[in-house]
Known about the structure:
Layout: E1 2-4, E2 12-19, H1 21-28, E3 33-34, E4 45-50, E5 56-60, E6 75-81, H2 85-100, E7 105-106, E8 113-114
Antiparallel strand pairs: 1-4, 1-8, 2-6, 3-4, 4-5, 5-6, 7-8
Helix pairs in contact: 1-2
Amino acid sequence: MLTRTKQTGGTSLKGHVTTTFNKLVAAFGNPCINEGPSEWEKVTIEWCLCFPDGTIATIYDWKCYGWQPLGDKEWEWHIGGHSSAAVSLVHERLAARAILDEPKIEFSGPFFDLAK
């Protein structure tokens, strides 16, 4: 089961994915961080995920300064992790959700589990 995590220390940029905010929400639930537009913050939207094999992935906007890539606007999101496996797993999950067309989310507190 895919879960949210706070254990993102040591992650760094590993790749990108071009998709929409709405598709990310459908695949991964609401972001862990959604600060609102900022003229100073480099990251205002972020998902912090742990895949079943233990791979940590972060998906985040980068330097949007003053606006956020919300809704159905295509955007090149950054994918962080400890290895390139994070990139592959994010892309696989998005492709699978595109076929299923609806997320299966089980809530369990402030960080919630996302069913496969």
